[in-house]
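It would be a great kindness if you could assist me with a short task in structural biology. I am sending you one protein, given as its amino acid sequence and as whole-number tokens for its backbone shapes. I would ask you to consider whether the tokens describe a fold that such a sequence might reasonably adopt. The full record is reproduced below for your convenience.
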Amino acid sequence: NGGNVTAKAALTADIAQGEVDYQPIGTTANVFKGELNGNGHSVTLDINRPDQDYQGLCGVITDGVWIHDITVKGSVIGRNSVGGIAGGTNGGANNTAWTKLERCTNEADITASNNNAGGMIGVYMNGSASFEFNDCLNAGTIKGGESGAMSGWSGGGWSIMRRCLNTGLVNDGGSDFTRENGTSRVDCYSK
């Protein structure tokens, strides 16, 4: 968040937030586009900020980011743009660089006190986005207006989900996968 937006990080153990005042990775001023490798580990969050936007493990991510092999547990509460993996992305409307999430699992309960909650990403901040979700799972409860199991809004254009699964409950007028305009889904299921 200090400006090294292309940082690469890898977890070497499970992490629990505990009493730490956790600040999501990436802000609207310093949007994260590096790599976060969970190495199969989990992060347990306890974020309760119903008056703040862009809450999640990451706050704001963008084209070129690669987040993979990580599980988010616990609870994330924010106002708008709330997600297990990221609150929002300002990814562009082309397919030259992708917002890529692979083998990510959300087990956390996600709540937007206003709009756009999602197990993976709360909202795509532009009218359309270039994102790719591969082998992702939402098992958490998603609450908030205009919400979805994977994302509250995924724009349109180049975006795709492959082999994604939702086993969580989506409340308050949400979607099994994502509110969207033209997102492709391949071998995706919700039960």
Summary: The CA atoms of residues 33 and 97 lie 10 Å apart. The chain has a mean pLDDT of 89.
